[in-house]
Amino acid sequence: MPDAKPETVYLIDGHxxxxxxxxxxxxxxxxxxxxxPTGAVFAFTAMLLKFFDTCRPTRAALVIDSDEPTFRHALDxxxxxxxxxxxxDFKPQIPVMIEIARGFGLPVLAVPGAEADDxxxxxxxxxxxxxxxxxxxxxxxxxxxEQVISDRVVLYDVQTQEVRDEPGLxxxxxxxxxxxxxxxALIGDTSDNVPGVEGIGxxxxxxxxxxxxxxxxxxxxxPTLKGKQRERLExxxxxxxxxxxKQLVTLMRDVETGFDADDAAVSxxxxxxxxxxxxxxxxxxxxxxxxxxxxxxxxxxxxxxxGRAKQPDPREEAPAGxxxxxxxxxxxxxxxxxxxxxxxxAGYTCxxxxxAVEQAVEDARSAGRxxxxxETLGMGHHxxxxxxxxxxxxxxxxxxxxxxxxxxxHLGEAEVIELLRPLLEDASVAKLGQNFKYxxxxxxxxxxxxxxxxxxxxxAAFLCNAPGLGMDAxxxxxxxxxxxxxAAVIGEKPRKKADxxxxxxxxxxxxxxTAYAAEDADVTLRLCNLLExxxxxxxxxxxxxxxxxxxxxxxFEMERAGILVDPDRLEEQRxxxxxxxxxxxAEMEAAVEGASPTPEGEEPPSLDxxxxxxxxxxxxxxxxxxxxTKTGYSTDAEVLExxxxxxxxxxxxxxxxxxxxxxxxxxxxxxxxxxxxxxxxQLQAAAQQLGDSRVHCSFNPxxxxxxxxxxxxxxxxxxxxxxxxxxxxxxxxVAPEGMKLIAADxxxxxLRVLAHLSEDEALLEAFAENRDVHTAVAAEVFxxxxxxxxxxxxxxxxxxxxxxxxxxxxxxxxxxxxGLDNAGAAELIDAYKARYAGIDRFLQQCVTQARDxxxxxxxxxxxxxxxxxxxxxxxxxxxxxxxxxxxxxxGSAADLIKTAMxxxxxxxxxxxxxxxxxxxxxxxxxxxxxxxxADELAGVMREVMSSAMTLRCPLEVEASVGADWxxxx
Length: 969
Prior knowledge:
6-stranded mixed β-sheet, disordered N terminus, hydrolase, Nucleotidyltransferase, domain 5, about 45% helix, Taq DNA Polymerase, Chain T, domain 4, 24 strands, alpha/beta
């Protein structure tokens, strides 16, 4: 038990710390479990961790404002009336922060009709009066509390460790605590709408109080003052404004709290680990549990402090330092098995005999659906198999090991594979999984070709707009179940060289592995059962069954196939582009020296340094500054594009002519540098990974919110398709000997989807008559005959056509069309909407649906939740409106190409066609076929893709054949 009369009581200013926590974290953190905002909670928790570690409190409390009006509102209805509403994502976090505080054992004080400052001032007086040995520390930097400072009351800032005491206040502001009320009354407080005296700021106020002693002395001395200062003071006194200001800033010292020092008893030992860990899990905090555990271990050892002084980064798993931060833990506690019931679940069984596995296969086949999960020796698709877990009844699961520290007690891999093959390759039994594409790879590597309908809980969660897609987050959100973390089995990931490495799962205790693996299968089954119903409730079950789930094994086959790369051609392309980058850099450096020679003795600026480039462009060469960052001038792509446009328009009179090409040159140089320095290296490494010279990228069905596929390792969507450079890169992707590549691409698919959805007659007519849609639109908007449309007009129409899908604004359009200002862009958009009224009506319908329902839907019913559609912030609201439009059109295009992929796969299988789909990039499918049948099979692809959906306008598909991707394109 702590001492009954501790030396210090800490009173934490709750709302001050809440707001400070909110503004400490940028980027809109949300929980992967609940989807709720968590940035302020994250930062506030880190502050408390640091506070308990640094201060080791034995008496503390969190003091917060109540919602009721105070006496100040009765005195002045305008009190705090100028405050804007807090951010929309702040208020929901307050109850969670209060819950966090209670988990730390902090009593939470709020008194109706009193502000937190009033409560703190009252308690500071009463506690120090009741115990002459007691000190009070107010954990705040709020200036309103400076009047409470005394020889035993100080203000404390956790971030800087700064203590504001009587000498510190005098040094900082030139006043004593006794003068703090008068000082604040004179200067007022704009944040609280306290008027003060016009024209009197901090320096003047401190001088007046130094001269006259207090406010009464200032009032008495007004006749001795001169000029405006005297006039303003007289006016404030006469109107009662000064007296009102003093009343408003004077803190109450008689709030009835019913609270004494004994009520504030806290300790590190008394922190409620279970409550906090549950909150951390729901918030998705990975680092805080470790810091809490380490804090608890240092409870009796103040020397083992956690404190560091760096700003936290919530993107890191273990944020470090600073006001709202916690440092990285040096070591991790052993997970308590009691926290994870699966470790003792009698329903989870390890199958070690042939008879037991055969019975499990029979039971799973009888159930008609089985959840399957693999345990592997590493993370890659081709890593070794350690075991397979299965579940066909909720609450029960089996684990079948093939590798363990006890190899003599169970079956080997070959025997297990042969026993499981009849079940896994049985097309009548549905297979359930979590990120099941990975398990398909692992099982295929072991020789099993999984058959049967697939249901993937990760994909289903994505269709249901779940905030998190990982199994642990889904289990907690949907099942209120904490899964065993992998670290509880194989150990924590080492954070420094001295830390032991993680074990292979094959080297871990078989009982613990069984619990972990069997739980995965059981949770997967439960999630699939639940999410299948959720899909039905959300109207996306048919989309799931007919498109998204059949796509999972298709993507697996595409990844397994890969696409052949010619390493020599790839290296030739890399070397050629690297040479061009070097030439371009030399040309720009020469242009700079010609325009503004580097002074003798100085180093020429580095074009690869954004900071030096900024100084060169804006300080030395006189380019107009476009925007700044915290570290100086911005030279990002947007800035360089704007400067390039100004140079093209001849609108740089103060810049030497020789330097006009520098922004455009830098754009090209950066693109080339990125391609040669990063992208080619990724391609070359990917092609060598399996020794087959094929790039096996990963396709992610949940990677884009609109429903489009994304790719990674490497991301082939990043190839710049509209540039000559990008086209040449494609030439390195080749067909094997005796084969050809087929590239089948939808033509203007998003515009055709827009025409279908909007039912705009003019746009539908243009597509029906197979006219050049951009020319047709230009003719309508600019009111000229199609034959008279200029290249510039067609380009403008093309930009609007594609931009309208993304909710383009006048500002955005002006940026995209050279020589067009905002007013001209607005006129162009208005003319477009007037002529294509169906499109404008459809765009408004998208926004209305989002506002009424909270989501928008695609052609096949795919939903996307649209946050911020009613936001008070016009920028957030505008962004939400653009997302609503884009999600419907681009999401419907995603529906289309995914449907085409499923239809094509069905056609290939039903007719046993020698056609293998390799890639899906944007609106294009790339496949491989025997050279002798390539033209025929290109026709099949064209036929299937063009009939994947029936739209109000025809779907055009261009399919070409070539020895490489460029030639096929």
